[in-house]
Design brief:
The chain is an alpha/beta fold. It has 15 helices and 10 strands. Helix 5 (115-128) packs parallel to helix 7, helix 6 (139-149) crosses helix 7 (153-163) and helix 6 crosses helix 9.
Amino acid sequence: MELKRIEQKVKSGERISRDDVIALFYSDDLLSIGRMAEHVSNKKNGKNVYFIKNRHINPTNICINRCQLCAFSKDKNEIDSYGMTIGEVIDKVRKSEKGINEFHIVGGLNPELDLNYYLNLLRSLKKLFPNIHIQAFTAVEIDFLANISDLTVGEVLALLMKAGLGSLPGGGAEIFDSSVRRAICEKKISGERWLEVMEIAHSLGVRSNATMLYGHVETYEDRVNHLDMLRKLQDKTGGFQSFIPLSFHPSNTRLSSLVTRHWTTGFDDLKTLAISRMFLDNFDHIKAFWIMLGEKIAQVSLNFGVDDIDGTVVEEKITHAAGAQTGEEMSKEELIHLIKEAGRIPVERDTLYNVVKVYE
């Protein structure tokens, strides 16, 4: 009876409430939840499913935060720690820049890499690859650069934009609740600060994505609170492009002994994606990050409210450090095949969702 009431709201275009979302999370009727989410997705994007030819770049894994959730970060003196020179970054991307539309750049908070390093990195990439969009630096990294440079977030963003920054990724959001953050990422900026950085970016015309890391120590209520805070900021700024729920990978993290669920299930993954589609009615896109979900669950999610399957990625390191079982990249042809087999229309896009090509 509860689902029927919520379904009526969804079908009529009425905004669902926090209580509705909690009821959905506690429901086991996955197929009904999926049908509702598919209805919302079809109204927004029809049968289109977007993807991008992109390449990930992680300039350094040295990080002063050393979050409990992270298997990627290292201390400076560890054997496998690294900080790439700009020349090393350029050499790496030259091997795979053909046809790429986006560089996706995130890394650790390395105190030996100052703001000038990142400005020069952006300038160098833009000079050599002027037509490739640069989506770079999480809100956590932006806040860090502001602190070490004695500048405001707005001033740092203005300098980065002038150097070639195009948009911000959505990483670092994790779960906004302060008690959860103390358990999983104690030294990371607060959820409120993450939202503040994004609001400043949006005010400057910088679009961004948003994420939520789920499947560790959080409750369903924590997830709902997180989604609610994102929806409220989107109501205010309209600056978010897509929402990306990220399933936690515990291997090699200091949370592995605390997480009772160990790995998220396909059931939880699909439910979280579908519920996000319904609740975040002011987000145009919900993205399934196939690196974390696996190719098959990501494909199935295209009928559970998802309209974006991310991209080719190329050399993903962060999730694989935590035990990801997927490959580090996927060809455009494979992405198109997955989308078509799900009964959807593959649409190659750029970072800002301009259409590059439709594969009917």
